[in-house]
Amino acid sequence: MQTSHTLLERVRNRSDENSWSEFDDIYRPYILNVVKRMNFTHEEAEDLCQNIILILWEKIPEFKHNFRTGAFRSWLCTIVRNRAINIINKNQRISEKLTTKNEEALSPYIKTSQNDLEQIAKEEWIAHITDLAWKKIEDEFEENIRRAFTMSLKNVPGEEIAEELGIKLNSVYVYKNRIKKRLEEIIRILKVQYV
Q: At residue 125, does pLDDT exceed 70?
């Protein structure tokens, strides 16, 4: 796994399709989840996400990384916020032409402040890194181990998991802890790599 610093350097070359594909795989789901939490509809979120990726493609050669943790995400968050505000303003202008009571329709968007967006971005980044970690390790474990772990995440009692999977209760806890330890290890690595 390469660091995001290396990836950010490679995507400065806009014709490097492999790097852009990797960048898209890492950051598109994150951007989409942040935008969805800003109360855009699914279609609006998809369109906005695509628009942000295009803006990143245009602007990333100008990005100056200071190697501070979170610097890229902060820059990305500013782009997301600015683009969302542009869309909201555009929607507001359209809405004003159609009705005088546009405030109700736009209020869910307007309520997302800079502080809210930063909190959303932070929460979604943690969830995104966890999801990336799970994708990297899930094939390392047998089906029963994975099922025991995912069932425990859904708060299924250990006794029920043991019965359904035909394993001992102690094995449920061993499996859960084995995956948890490996996930924590990969999450630590990813937090350093994807800044």
A: yes
pTM score: 0.69
Angle at 118 between CA 82 and CA 116, to 5 degrees: 90
Q: What are the structural domain ranges in the chain?
A: 4-125, 141-195
The C-alpha atoms of residue 40 and residue 38 are separated, in whole angstroms, by 6
Distance, CA of 122 to CA of 191 (rounded, Å): 12
Q: What is the DSSP letter of 139?
A: G
Rounded to whole angstroms, the Cα distance separating 170 from 188 reads 27
The Cα-based distances of 168 to 20, 119, 140, 141 in angstroms read: 46, 41, 21, 17
pLDDT digits (tens, 9 = 90+) for 39-62: 888 898 999 999 999 999 999 888
